[in-house]
Each structure stands twice: as C-alpha cells, then as structure tokens.
Specification:
Elements (H helix, E strand, L loop, with lengths): L1 H22 L18 H6 L7 E8 L2 E5 L2 H9 L1 H4 L8 H5 L7 E8 L2 E5 L2 H8 L2 H15 L3
Antiparallel strand pairs: 1-2, 3-4
C-alpha cells in the first residue's frame, strides 16, 4: 500500500513539473510565482549592458507579472515606460517566437536592436538568430499576434 501511495505521489509531482511551463504561459514569460523573466531586471540590459538579478523588495506589477529590479532607479524608469524596457515577445526567446513557439531564455543570450531587448534560448540559438535579425524579428512579430495569449 505504501509503495503504491509513494508511486502515485511521484507521478503527480512529475505531472506538475512537466505541466508547470504551460501553467505559466501567457503574454509574459514568468515563473509559477509570477516573476517576469526569471526575476531579472529588464532595465539592467539597457543601462548596464548585462543581465542583473532583481530584488524581491524592488518590484513593479505590469502585464500580470511581477517585475524585479536591482535598484529603485531601474524600477522607476520601468514603471514610467515599461514598453521601452520590457523584452520583446514578453521575454520569450526571439528566435523561438520566429519559429512559432514560446520557449525560455538564457540571460546571457541577448541583444538590443533599435532600443528593444531581445532574449534568446542559448548562445547557439543566438548565433542562428544573428544571421538574419531583421528577418527573424519580422517573422516573430507576425507570430507573436497569435502566440502571445496562449
């Protein structure tokens, strides 16, 4: 009996783990706790040129997600103009959206193009994306209209 209970609990836990990304889907790439872009400060990529983790004490609610910031200045800049600092495609991988899918990102695989932050899944995908940035942005813009609320 105990063995079956443990096996059943394990199966439920695995199902929850596998389904977790689907539960968090929406226009913003957020964790199950509601933190946008894994808690990274979106303004830091623009002003510091690098990814920086945000603080749980410096947040702003926008688009149904909690955005974290490294300092109050970043939080206030974002709050005044979130469209300027938020990553394209809600923080999902730009190349992935161009291919028609919502996938995660690596904070070190990013680029700012025309004042817009684009995140990518990993360095290899980023290299593919860089071969035709304008073309992939065009495809992703079209795809995002149908993907963003899924």
């Amino acid at each position: 009996m105990t063995r079956h209970l443990i096996a059943g609990l394990f199966a439920v836990a695995m199902l929850a783990f596998v389904a977790a990304p689907a539960l968090a889907a929406g226009p913003v790439n957020k964790t199950l706790l509601g933190n946008a872009i894994d808690g990274y400060d979106p303004v830091a990529w623009h002003l510091l040129g690098e990814p920086v983790e945000g603080s749980k004490d410096l947040t702003h609610e926008w688009m149904g997600a909690t955005w974290r910031f490294a300092n109050a200045e970043h939080r206030d800049l974002f709050a005044a103009d979130p469209e300027r600092y938020a990553p394209a495609y809600g923080g999902y991988c730009a190349y992935g959206v161009a291919q028609g899918a919502k996938v995660g990102f690596n904070p070190d695989s990013w680029e700012i193009v025309g004042d817009r932050l684009y995140l990518n899944l990993n360095p290899g995908i980023q290299k593919k994306w860089q071969k035709d940035i304008a073309g992939f942005i065009s495809k992703a813009d079209r795809n995002w209209k149908r993907l963003k609320n899924r």
